[in-house]
Design a protein that fits this description.
Pfam families: Phage_capsid. Its main location: virion. Keywords: Coiled coil, Signal. This protein is α+β, with helices and mostly antiparallel strands and 420 residues long. It has two domains: 2-99, no CATH class; 117-184 and 215-417, Major capsid protein gp5 fold, CATH 3.30.2400.10. It contains eleven helices and 13 strands. The protein has helices spanning 2-15, 41-67, 73-99, 117-122, 125-131, 238-263, 274-277, 292-305, 317-324, 367-370, 390-393, and strands at residues 137-141, 177-180, 185-195, 211-220, 222-231, 279-280, 312-315, 345-346, 349-353, 362-365, 371-384, 395-408, 414-417. Helix 1 runs antiparallel to helix 2 (41-67), helix 1 (2-15) packs parallel to helix 3 and helix 2 (41-67) packs antiparallel against helix 3 (73-99). It is extended and about 100 Å long.
Length: 420
């Protein structure tokens, strides 16, 4: 049994294939160089082969001793040590592979590699059966947009090769801090007033007391969802389904999400958006000749006077166009280089333009500290032919939905312009 176990363990390890160039380095003292410009597989197999050979030899010899009725404790001890060494080598190789970014032991994907909801759907176990006309219900879930590994956040997009590429349109979610929740609502203490009485104090003198007042507020989890019905002939075109899910259903959720994160009014099934809660811009009368670019710089000052630092700017597409097209006296563009595709910034702030804001409306704030998104359920796509009369009409239903809450810790961390 031990022999079979050793072979199984070795097969498992070899399944975690090492391939391609890597870094230079050595492992296990005088063992061969495992990581150079050549394929390291041979070196790894040689190192493990030594251990496996020792284990099998000791095992076979010990079995002969047992048949002969001989009890030799040294063999049992040596065999146990070899088994332990084999386990340690396997773990060290796996850990090293993870550090080199080739194996993500938490997700089974190479580090940075992600699968979109559409890709998960067409690769699911039930998809092949669906193409054969069987009744089915299959689902896929895509992680929230962030810049972390294993995410499809627009700020850190992994390179994807092939005919299809996931949508790269930036959304407001990227600006916020993000978390998860298992509750249907969240209660957080929100700063109500802050009086800073800090002052210079003499030795043994009485210290002044500052006043910081909080009040508990409840932020409910809300659902965003939609569905479409399509002919089941689309099941024969996996690439089309993947594209439709990612470019239409998931992006449809994100567009609605943008509007809720900004202008949700907090009633019914709506979130309370940061634009709804933000303080009004109050520095517009400083200079009547100010351009929109000047106005945004003054808005940064308004936030600093409220002890906040701006981390993002959201405006309408037309207002962004006005900024991009401003030119110097010699005709050159001031804020953009039309030959590059770098992330748009103004005064160092990342910009997001959205049709959720009308012309003249904009929002600036400390998105990272002033508010946070909590996902109860990441964006999920389900496909079935059992809804209503789908089966007899040869149709499939695709549904996308997500559940999230937006917690606004401090409304003074945001400033908006809301023209009449």
């Amino acid at each position: 049994m031990k022999k079979a176990l050793m072979i199984t363990q070795l097969a498992t390890l070899m399944g975690q294939a090492y391939a391609g160039p890597s870094m230079s380095g050595k492992m296990f003292g005088p063992a061969p160089t495992l990581f150079d410009d050549a394929d390291p597989t041979a070196g790894i197999m040689a190192e493990l082969s030594k251990i496996e050979t020792g284990i099998l030899a000791k095992t076979e010899k010990r079995m002969e001793e047992i048949k002969s009725g001989i009890k030799v404790k040294d063999y049992d001890s040596e065999l146990a040590n070899l088994e332990k060494e084999h386990t340690e080598v396997k773990k060290q190789l796996t850990d090293l592979e993870a550090k080199l970014g080739r194996l993500d032991v938490t997700t089974g994907l190479r580090q940075g590699e992600v699968k979109t909801a559409g890709q998960q759907l067409i690769e699911s176990k039930g998809f092949d059966g669906a193409k054969q006309g069987e009744r089915f219900l299959i689902s896929a879930e895509v992680k929230a947009l962030t810049s972390a590994a294993g995410s499809v956040g627009v700020l850190v997009q992994p390179q994807r090769l092939g005919m299809y590429e996931a949508p790269t349109e930036p959304h407001l979610r990227d600006l916020f801090a993000q978390g998860t929740t298992t509750s249907s609502s969240l209660v957080f203490p929100v700063r109500k007033t802050w009086t800073n009485n800090a002052d210079m104090v003499a030795e043994l003198g009485l210290k002044p007391e500052s006043d910081l007042v909080f009040e508990d507020k409840t932020f409910p989890v809300r659902k965003i969802a939609h569905f479409v019905k399509l002919s089941d002939e689309i099941l024969d075109d996996a690439a089309a389904i993947q594209s439709y899910v990612d470019a239409q259903l998931i992006e449809g959720l994100r567009e609605k999400e943008d509007g809720q994160l900004l202008k949700g009014n907090g009633t019914g099934q709506n979130l309370t958006g940061v634009y709804t809660a933000a303080a009004a811009y109050n520095r517009g009368a400083i200079d009547p000749e100010d351009t929109l670019i000047d106005t945004f710089r003054r808005a940064m000052t308004q936030l600093r006077l409220a002890r906040h630092t701006a981390t993002g700017l959201v405006l309408s597409p037309a207002d962004r166009e006005e900024i991009d097209l401003q030119k110097g006296t010699d005709g050159h563009y001031i804020w953009v280089n039309i030959g590059t595709a770098a992330e748009p910034r103004l005064w160092g702030l990342p910009i997001r333009d959205t049709t959720a804001l009308a012309d003249g409306e904009w929002l600036m704030g400390n998105f990272r500290r002033g508010a946070q998104i909590f996902d109860r359920m990441d964006a999920r796509v389900e496909m079935t032919n059992t809804d209503q009369d789908d089966f007899v009409r040869n149709r499939v239903t695709l549904r996308a939905e997500e559940r999230l809450a937006l917690v606004i810790y401090d409304a003074t961390a945001f400033v908006k312009n809301a023209p009449a």
